[in-house]
Amino acid sequence: MKSLILNTHHLFTEPLLYYRAVTAVLPVLSRIFLLILTPMVVWGQARNGFEHHAYSGATASLPAAAFVLSANPAAISGHRIHVYGHEYFGMDALRDGGISYQIESGNEGLFHGFAAEVHQFGFDLYQEVTLRAGATLSTGNARIGIAPSMMQTRIPQYGSALAVQSDIGFQYQVTESVLLGGVMRNVPLAKSGDFAVSSASSLHAGISYQPEQHLMILTEIIQTTGYQPDVHVGFHYDVHTGLSHLDILLALGYATNHAQWSAGVQTILFGLVTGISVRNHPVLGRSQGIGIGYAW
Predict the structure, then answer these.
(1) pLDDT on residue 108
(2) What's the whole-number mean pLDDT along residues 227-255?
(3) Is the Cβ–Cβ distance between 266 and 273 less than 8 Å?
(4) Do the Cβ atoms of 237 and 203 come closer than 8 Å?
């Protein structure tokens, strides 16, 4: 068994370096070199969806989300199915995509809601598939959610590996306008395969404040293993269209990690949901995503 240990915060640094060295020109190589030198968090691998990118990852206290298990497994709400794709820094090789489904039982108790997600990231030299399923328990103003996952990683020159992890989340409705949320992400459970692979564990603590019906402010502190704490802020605004079957959502986000900003627009028309998002890194450039789904 090869003694290769991977951390998905830097999962594409080495393979992408060789890939671009053959297929790209010097400006692209300089971006990849920065990926190796810069301790940045790559948000898309195994985390997807409009909300995650548009709010710069400030989703622990979001009361509902299309890719809810990528946000907080305690926030399962409603009936939704969504697909979403994301491309990083304008590079074709750095694309990921996912599909999410969630259903709410409407009952207080063990099975308040269930959700499942499938994510895929990679190119010829690195491929990653993550399967995640979760359930929410609800009692009074509090919710608890758990979402175990299996991440299959394949690197042609090394073989393949499997990591079993879990996310544990909670939300508490303090008042009608204040919601607390927290998530422990990527808690390691088991590993197997030709090499050891895992995602860095992180602790998220957030609060959302809704001063009026159409506006919500999200703040979150993220502590990732091996990194300094990060502060993330998101703004959510529902545009008043005057049409009963049309909703338009504007989203903004900011992360202190390399001063990254993000923005997004989502529309809901007769239950059909479409969304686009963009996220900017001051050195590596912009990443963009697009998704479509249905809510009922």
Answers:
(1) 65
(2) 93
(3) yes
(4) no
